[in-house]
Specification:
alpha+beta; Arc Repressor Mutant, subunit A; 6-stranded antiparallel β-sheet; two-stranded antiparallel sheet; 7 helices; 42% helix
């Protein structure tokens, strides 16, 4: 059992860490040119959520809360869901893809006026070609993480769904070297498995025939 002095010391350390993290986030927000009164969000998660091919990577997103998505969203965004609370939409200004153990990382920055830049940061500190190649492989994961365009899974025309389905299938097949499942493709397209199935039905797409034709392209 901790003494009052030890408890007070631990509390002070915790407060110091909180203040340091807050200061770092505010400094980054200023560096990125975010509005001063914006409410920021930082999301960090394992790349494995996008499949076993990315289990050695981690993803960081930093942005500001916005009330809703525009119909044709021109900027990268993320959805934040916590329990039964309403879904939050994050306009993402910074994305970082890190290979675990590598000093280098992929960094993508977005700004409403300056547009987007993508850079490989820290390459000079990488000690091997293999590590450098794997780090650069994070560009493919960045493409998967990045979301923009129409609100996912809503109000697509048949032609738009067919085009997006082809893109998603080809992208995942290239990553995994095998036929991606309907659930994997639905996740890539930003829709539920049920919505994906309804689109297949409304477009008259036979999944078995679609996969068979895809293997011969």
């Amino acid at each position: 059992m901790s003494t009052p002095h030890e408890h007070a010391t631990a509390l002070m350390d915790s407060m110091d860490r909180f203040v340091a993290q807050y200061d770092a986030r505010r400094k980054l927000a200023v560096e990125l040119g975010m509005p001063r009164d914006a409410e920021t969000r930082r999301l960090v998660f394992d790349g494995a959520v996008y499949g076993k091919a990315w289990q050695e990577y981690s993803v960081e997103q930093f942005g500001i809360l916005v009330p809703e998505l525009p119909h044709r969203c021109p900027w990268p965004y993320a959805r934040q869901v916590s329990g039964d609370r309403p879904e939050l939409i994050v306009q993402v200004w910074l994305r970082r893809i890190r290979l675990n153990g590598s000093p280098a990382y992929i960094e993508a920055r977005w700004h409403p006026e300056r547009g987007e830049t993508i850079a490989l940061v820290g390459l000079e500190s990488v000690g091997s070609m293999r590590c450098a190649t794997q780090t650069l492989g994070g560009l493919k994961l960045l493409k998967r993480v990045d979301k923009r365009g129409r609100k996912p899974g809503r109000n697509w025309t048949d032609a738009e769904f067919r085009d997006r389905l082809r893109d998603a299938y080809d992208e995942l097949a290239a990553i995994y070297g095998d036929d991606p499942s309907q659930q994997e493709i639905a996740d890539n397209m930003g829709m539920s498995r049920a919505s994906f199935g309804r689109y297949l039905e409304s477009c008259g797409i036979c999944w078995h025939d679609f996969k068979a034709n895809s293997r011969h392209l």
